Amino acid sequence: MGELILIRHGETEWSRSGQHTSYTDLPLTELGERQARALVPVLAELGVGLTLVSPRLRARRTAELAGLRAPRVTPDLHEWEYGAYEGVTTVEIRRTRPEWDLWRDGVAPGPQDHPGESPSEVAARADRVLSEVGAAASRMGHDDIALVAHSHFLRVLTARYLGLPVTGGELFQLATGAVTRLGREHGKPVIKAMNVAIPKNMFEAAGC
Questions:
Q1: Which side of the chain, N or C, has fewer Cβ within a 10 Å radius?
Q2: Cα(63)–Cα(190) distance, rounded to whole angstroms?
Q3: Element (H, E) at 90
Q4: Residue 13 among the catalytic residues
């Protein structure tokens, strides 16, 4: 099996402002598009044989600009459904719930079509993706598999890959346009690189 390459989408207006964004289908900002293009030489050096991508526009556009070929839309890669906290910042939530913690408490119920997800529901979704990845890896040999998705979901997936509970996701951080590499050492799951983001001045100098 190759490595599992996790890519958070490029910047959007709400990721810049800190607003929770799950189903709201925002485009990348100009900076977000440059972040995605800057990934082209990084990913070209890896042996990505399969790309799975969230159905959200910001993730699909990132995969396209990063040069990932034939990405397969995978519904389970969507972001944590934030329910009533969609579009709301953590600072705003803690004005009425000062001890609120997403990883422990989940979200307040939202509208009927987007009620929100509990931590255990997100963990179950991450486990399904990892099962799909494992099945694909057994067919592909040593090719890497790329997942283009969202911050909180990829942090949960990292925790589950390492055998940690969903709350383990709070230990990791993912910047927009950042890459994480998960692999194995002596048969055990490990982080090979975490939250690697290309410095802004580097991709601006390259004209990305």
A1: N
A2: 24
A3: helix 90-93
A4: no
Q: For residue 111, give every residue at least 6 positions away whose Cβ sits within 8 Å of its Cβ, in sequence order, or none.
A: none
**Residue among 82, 40, 74, 41 nearest 148 (CA):** 74
Q: What is the pLDDT of residues 129-154, one digit of tens each?
A: 999 999 999 888 889 999 999 999 99
Residues 25-53 as b/e (b if ≥16 CB within 10 A, e otherwise) read: ebebbebbbbbbbbbeeebeeeebbbbbb
pTM of the model: 0.95
Calpha distance 69→3 (Å, rounded): 17
Span 96-110, pLDDT tens digits: 999 999 999 999 999
The alpha carbon of 184 is separated from its chain's Cα centroid by a whole number of angstroms, namely: 20
Lateral strand order in the sheet of 188-196: 72-73, 48-53, 144-149, 4-8, 179-185, 188-196
Residue 11 appears among annotated catalytic residues: no
Closest CA relative to residue 75, chosen from 136, 18, 12, 153: 153
* CB neighbours of residue 118 within 10 Å: 15
Bridge partners, 149 (sequence order): 8
Identify the active-site residue in 3, 11, 33, 79: 79
Which residues on neighbouring strands pair with residue 191, listed in sequence order? 182
Q: Which of 9, 20, 78, 150 is catalytic?
A: 9
DSSP summary character for residue 56? S
